[in-house]
Amino acid sequence: MNTKKYLILGAGPAGLTLANKLKEAGETSFLVLEKEAEAGGLCRSADVDGAPLDIGGGHFLDVCRPKVTEFLFQFMPEKEWNVFDRDSKVSINGKIIDCPLESNLWQMDIDEQIEYLLSIASAGCNTGEKPPQNYTEWIPWKLGRKIAENYMIPYNTKMFGDEIDNLGAYWMEKLPDVSFEETLRSCLTHVPYGKLPCVHRFYAPKEYGYGEVWLRMADAIKDSVEYGKAVTGIDFNTLTVTTTDGSRYTAENIITTIPWMEFSEIIGMPEEIKTSISELKYGSVEIEYFPDNVDTSAHWIYYSEPELAYNRILFRHNFYYGSKGYWTETQGHRLQQSDRNNFRYLNKYAYPFMTKKKPEIMKHLLEWAEKHNVYGLGRWGEHQYYNSDVTVGVAMDMAKRLMGRTNK
User: Fold this and answer.
1) What confidence tier does 246 reach under pLDDT thresholds 50, 70, 90?
2) Distance between CA atoms of residues 365 and 363, nearest Å
3) I need a labelling partner for 276 at 20 to 30 A (CA). Which of 24, 131, 178, 370 fits?
4) Measured distance CA(30)–CA(99) in Å, rounded
5) Do 184 and 231 belong together in one domain?
6) Could you tell me if 150 and 29 lie in one domain?
7) What tens digit of pLDDT does each residue of 206-217 get?
8) Which structural domain range is residue 122 located in?
9) 142, 175, 196: which is the final residue of a domain?
């Protein structure tokens, strides 16, 4: 076996960023293994009905991290992107309201506004109660029981299923932050106030799907990527991985961006850490394409209604110009049989669940693995609910850290 200095598992945003940063620094002894036939991971795209469709669901390039966008523009220049002000909405009891809901209650009837405002005013965060650590208790503590019961809990039950009661509250920075005073001001002025959600402005390619930038990054290191290599085993004693076709690869440093659950054989890891991996939870998502245009300006809409199997619709004709139609996103535990012949794609690994046990599990796992020169990176390597731009940023930082450590 040819030993590489760096062996990278997975050619998604994390793995591709790390590999290209290594190359940029003059490193040549690295190899990327990817189980699929092309790069991109959850950010891959396909040509469906004559236009791009993102088969991993709705992933966009946030404008808020200049170092990340500058890096990606090296592969796909800024002139090849359109920039949008996010137009997202929520469907609550059949009524479409701008997102975030708590900043746009003024779009409801006056009696409903009053009910929601009274509920928010009595929320625990406004009455001095200590914040809960359980997600389902934190939501009414922060937003009031009416938003919790009519929107957030139904929607997130669609997302997380039976695991919703096992979620922690430590990852709530992903949610908009809107105070009661800002909600009240919005109702009085009909102007949304408060912290906007992540990806409030974003880039989308002009002529391609979001997967294009990752294909170009893979092409920049094409001699150092092997496709069709599904990793199934890892040996911490020899720093060797095995794949389903019987291939074996060894390295001085292994960086995994794939889910830890994908390792069916782990050698040299303490049993208690190995067992804890099985306690990590995740969700799958299926996207389904529909060719009809919908009369809406929204880029996407979140649907809380339990009777609807899907939880989100993305209207691609509003961000991929020249296209038509939309796609739905449905969580794996809510999939239904269908006799339609629409394009469908199931992503087994879509969302890492932020369970109460997850931080401790990953802390012990990553600390122990790093002592053996194995590093977890990105949404799946760290089991973190990272957006793609965040993933690129942490991978850039990892490249700097790895080169600093291994060059000592």
Assistant:
1) very high
2) 6
3) 131
4) 43
5) no
6) no
7) 999 999 999 999
8) 100-196
9) 196
